[in-house]
Specification:
The structure holds two protein chains of two kinds. By secondary structure, chain A is mainly α. In chain A, 73% of the residues lie in helices and 0% in strands. Chain A has twelve helices and no strands. By secondary structure, chain B is mainly alpha-helical. Classes of the chains: A mainly alpha, B mainly alpha.
Chain lengths: 301, 313
């Protein structure tokens, strides 16, 4: 174990000596993690499929066919049909749109709320910090899944409401992370030096704090994507996520789970796709973390 | 010590108060009440005067503030009223009859995850880079990426539909317990295994272990006296809240395997907008989990003499 670690460090150093910087250095490091590259390819493929859904889906995902209900996989319907005769493969392909965009959009929304709040608390300190932290303490005393469920019951099922619920719970962790980063960066030597040399607050925030606080934020967002997909799937499973005519993987599993004896294909295929996608996002997030070289704790437990 | 416990209990009560306010506000923020939800499901209209009578009977016609204070007054006496989804049963009755199922599932899951998680964690720490360490990493990645309900569905498909080895659901015989426990133990196994491994590695690198080795103590003695004792106390801190989360039931596993526990009832309560049941479940959950944190901290202080309890922590 010791040897490869040393080797990696040496090559990384030689890379940075060659003048590889920023994104290029990141890519060179990232590329070395074979699993993460495979995961990236897998996810890119899925995004491509989701984007091209209207051309790729063999049938209309919403159009039922009462002459062809409950079919097991066959040459016309590769993954079979459901209780209304809708094509499972087409619903899976359209479901990719929902599941993937929930993951990405919710993380963007979380960053949009959590970043400024955390930065404000960390930079201002004092009473602002105290009040914000007390709010965060109280909100985090609720179990997360329970909070989601209560919010979704209050808001009602739907795509936009899912994003709102995830932001309402997710900004807490993000604000905490950013605040911690800002607090510890404020005390570093280079920030003090910059201030001593007359650097203004805006200069310090833009060049020193933002750039250095970014890596853990990016890692947390990348690992947050599978977490959000997990939550979407769970809520849709309970009937609180994506409402019926639309398709999402979790919802497909939840709706047809009771029929597993008679129509296994309705739940098994979405289950496999969901599990593989979660694995891919996790490996990708892990690869990004290693390439950024931060030691933020990964994974939502 | 007594002052510490008192201040923690006061903190616990204020958390419960806030949780009850948030839940109550969310429940009443939506247009439509529990009777509308049920009417919609049965596709029929409830005449206005009957709805008014129902609202009067359950006190839903009063102002939200009054409803909340009435709720608080009754909740303090552990009276949560009648369930709206199961007419004729009080919430307390439902809890008394259904919680044992969740409790049993939780304890079985806990025992299983301690066996697997702690075992894998210890062995991977003692023999890093052995095949069992790699197997441990594989298990933890599996637990991390596999949603419990997906695992439950796949287990159900392969073990009971395809191979016919186990019954698909129910809770009557020990054979029924296997799949729910497996599906429920993903998260606890992950947490226990990770914590145990890293905590053991830290303890094995500590100065006192080097000293013990330098003194010529046997490997077994070092492991049992120095490493285990110091490594397993931090695991306690995650174990307590974990156990609390487990005994309060699981939404997914209970509904998939048709186990009549609290999680199963909560899912139906949500679908029926059963206000009393939702309020009670949320509060009981928050109470159990906060109590578990408190007990864990106390236990930790007892187990590790270096820890002192102060008001701030």
């Amino acid at each position: 174990m010791d040897r490869p670690a040393v080797e990696t460090r040496l090559t990384t150093e030689s890379l940075s000596k060659k003048g590889a910087k920023g994104l290029r250095l990141f890519w060179l490091r990232f590329r070395r993690n074979r699993l993460a590259v495979i995961a990236l390819c897998f996810i890119s493929l899925e995004i491509l499929i989701a984007l091209c859904a209207p051309w790729l889906a063999p049938h209309d995902p919403y159009q039922g066919d009462f002459a062809a209900t409950w079919q097991t996989p066959n040459s016309l319907h590769w993954l079979g049909t459901d209780d209304l005769g809708r094509d499972v493969l087409s619903r899976l392909i359209y479901g990719a749109r929902v599941s993937l965009s929930i993951g990405v959009l919710s993380q963007l929304a979380i960053a949009l709320v959590g970043l400024p709040v955390g930065a404000l608390a960390g930079l201002r300190g004092g009473r602002v910090d105290y009040v914000l932290m007390r709010i965060i303490d109280v909100l985090s005393s609720l179990p997360v899944m329970l909070f989601y469920i209560l919010l979704m019951v209050a808001l009602g099922a739907g795509f936009g409401n899912l994003i709102i619920a995830m932001t309402a719970t997710g900004w807490i962790g993000m604000a905490r992370l950013v605040r911690g980063q800002v607090l510890s960066l404020k005390e570093t030597d280079y920030v003090r030096a910059s201030r001593a040399m007359g650097g203004g607050t805006r200069h310090i925030i833009m060049t020193h704090l933002l750039r250095n606080a970014m890596s853990p934020v990016i890692v947390s967002l990348a690992l947050g994507i599978p977490g959000a997909m997990f939550a979407e799937a769970g809520l849709s499973f309970l009937g609180l996520g994506i409402p019926s005519p639309q398709a999402s993987w979790g919802q497909m599993i939840g709706m047809y789970q009771a029929y597993i004896r008679t129509a296994w294909h309705l739940t098994v295929f979405p289950s496999i796709v969901l599990a593989l996608t979660m694995l891919a996002w996790f490996l990708l997030g892990d690869g990004i973390r290693d390439a950024l070289n931060t030691h933020a704790h990964g994974g939502t437990v | 010590m007594a002052r510490y416990i008192l201040s923690r209990v006061a903190g616990l009560l204020s958390v419960l108060l806030v949780v009850s306010i948030i839940t109550f506000a969310l429940m009443h923020a939506v247009p439509g009440g529990p009777f509308d939800a049920r009417a919609l499901e049965k596709q029929q209209m409830i005449p206005d005067n009957i709805k008014r009578q129902l609202n009067t009977k359950y006190g839903l016609d009063q102002s939200v503030w009054r409803q909340y204070f009435l709720f608080l007054r009754n909740a303090a006496r552990l009276d949560f009223g009648y369930s709206l989804a199961y007419p004729g049963r009080t919430v307390v009755q439902i809890f008394k009859e259904q919680w044992p199922y969740s409790f049993q599932l939780g304890l079985l899951t806990l025992a299983f995850s301690i066996l697997v998680g702690l075992g894998l964690g210890i062995i991977s720490a003692v023999r890093p880079n052995s095949w069992i360490d790699h197997a441990g990493t594989a298990v933890s990645i599996f637990c991390l990426v596999m949603p419990s309900f997906v695992f439950a569905v796949l287990l159900q498909f392969f073990l009971s539909v395809r191979l016919g080895l186990l019954p698909t659901g129910g809770w009557d015989s020990p054979l029924n317990w296997i799949m729910p426990v497996l599906a429920n133990s993903l998260a606890p196994v992950l947490v226990l295994q990770r914590y145990t491994r890293s905590s053991m590695r830290d303890a094995m690198r500590a100065g006192y272990v080097r000293t013990a080795r330098a003194k010529g103590l046997g490997r077994r003695r070092i492991m049992f006296v120095h490493v285990f004792k110091n490594a397993l106390t931090p695991v306690l801190t995650v174990g307590g809240p974990l156990a609390a989360g487990l005994i309060t039931g699981s939404f997914f596993v209970e509904s998939i395997f048709r186990i009549p526990g609290i999680g199963f009832y909560f899912v139906t309560a949500i679908q029926h907008r059963d206000y009393p049941m939702i309020m009670a479940t949320t509060l009981v959950w928050a109470a159990v989990i906060s109590t578990a944190y408190l007990l864990t901290d106390l236990l930790y202080a007892l187990a590790d003499p270096r820890v002192t309890l102060t008001k701030g922590t």
